[in-house]
Amino acid sequence: MSDLSALKDETLAAIESAGDEAALEAVRVAALGKKGSISALLATLGKLGPDERKSRGAAINALKDAVTEALAARRAVLRKAALEFQLAREALDMTLPVRPPAVETGRIHPISQVTDEIVAIFADMGFAVAEGPDIETDDFNFTKLNFPPGHPAREMHDTFFLQPDEKGERRLLRTHTSPVQVRTMLSQKPPIRVICPGRTYRTDFDQTHTPMFHQVEGLVIDQGATLANLKWVLEEFCKAFFEVPKVGMRFRPSFFPFTSPSMEVDIQCRRSGGEIRFGEGDDWLEILGCGMVHQNVLTNCGIDPDVYQGFAWGMGIDRVAMLKYGMPDLRDLFDADLRWLDHYGFKPLDAPTLAGGLSG
């Protein structure tokens, strides 16, 4: 029986060392196949006597059973290991990462931020915010602002007109926020100190113009309003907005139908390597238009020009935002590109204040 014991030890060792199911199948065939070692032993039983056949057969069948059980056990181990390896290789992490809070990922659009900065500056000077509709009448957008009949701004190539109503009157998308000034003067008695931020519309589109843009205008109506007051207001605004201790300003004569005298304002700057720095240098950059409110506008709005006078100004919010934060193309402001917004946007809690700093 020593031969059976040796064969058993050899076969069980081969089974234990099989590294995969293919190797294990080779061991099974070598032991239990038609020409296997254990099968060959069973084939010799017919040549033995009855007593020897009985004892020898029992020993060989016990060997066969032990090998069969060892094969089954090893096969289960190998299949489990193969399954675990496959699962690990093909694993997909179905869990979602913890989302950072919206206060960390959300961004305030630069136009909204700059509008809040402008409002904060003028609120500190005692100005209120006035608003009005985007769709206006020709009377509020042009006539009451002293635009004469036939003025180019009234033409289709400059203004978005809506279809005429049943009375034949055409409304339009306001070309400036000046109609808000008109509505304010018609609804309030002087003294008036308001700024009027909002969307405006003109038929223009290129690197520095868009069909819809943002504008802020300011209006002061009082008995003692003068050009000197206007210059002080604008100078204080530019220093606060661009966050510089001093700034040079140049006022040049110009023409606007609703102001007289009218001026365009340049601000001192220095251009270097594509960057513009304000409050220093020898260059000048136009940033806004202004002037004393025309007497006809005061009269059209029910204000006696012999008692009151006023001044007004207007600037593009998009333009000053680009100048302050170094944005090269106006159209990027309207592309809704999250990568751009992540770069130029502001954190939701970075509310602009004069005490804490406008730009955070």
What would you note in describing this structure?
With 360 residues, the protein is an alpha+beta fold. The protein contains twelve helices and ten strands. It has helices at 2-17, 21-32, 37-43, 50-89, 102-105, 110-124, 138-141, 178-187, 227-242, 295-300, 317-325, 338-344, and strands at 128-129, 135-136, 172-173, 192-201, 212-222, 249-256, 259-272, 275-278, 283-293, 309-316. 29% of the residues are buried.
Main sheet? Answer: 8 strands, mixed
Query: What is the strand tally?
Result: 10
**What is the helix tally?**
12
The chain-level structural class is alpha+beta
Order of H and E elements? HHHHHHEEHEHEEHEEEEHEHH
CATH superfamily placement of the largest domain: Bira Bifunctional Protein, Domain 2
User: What Rg is obtained from the alpha carbons, in whole angstroms?
Assistant: 44 Å
**Helical proportion, percent range:** 40-55%
- What's the number of domains? 2
Ranges with pLDDT <50 over ≥5 residues?
A: none
- Principal-axes shape call: rod-shaped
Beta-strand portion reads 15-25%
Keywords for this structure?
single chain; 360 residues; alpha+beta; BirA Bifunctional Protein, domain 2; 2 domains; 8-stranded mixed sheet; two-stranded antiparallel ribbon; 12 helices; 41% helix; rod-shaped
